[in-house]
Task: structure prediction
Amino acid sequence: MNRWAVGLSLAFFAFILWVIYLANTGASSVLFNLVGALPYGDKLGHFCLFGLLTFLFNLASRCKSFAIGRLRLYYGTAAVTIFVVAEEISQGFIPSRTFDTMDLTADALGILGFTYLSHLISRKSAKA
Result:
């Protein structure tokens, strides 16, 4: 099971890197057209892409966590958060992109929501 989670999370991460590459180079894509056709499609895309990546990374790492004071963080959540913040900030330095705090907010909500889902599944599997 874990090999599948690791493989799927890496494949999904590669997909996201490809989408970021397309956006950074100003290329067009049917995905961008689809997102543009949906109301709030860009924000929904950020929420789903980075939320799902968080969920997959948490599954792949078997929901292992570390402590910062009294707060416990999943390694997968921390890794995706660092990646997302770096990627969003880097957009301010790429001519074809713009830094958008609403994108970062959608990313954060997706990360938080899917982290909670990871927590629920981890607790349920621990009881079984």
The helical segments are 2-25, 30-37, 41-60, 75-90, 101-127.
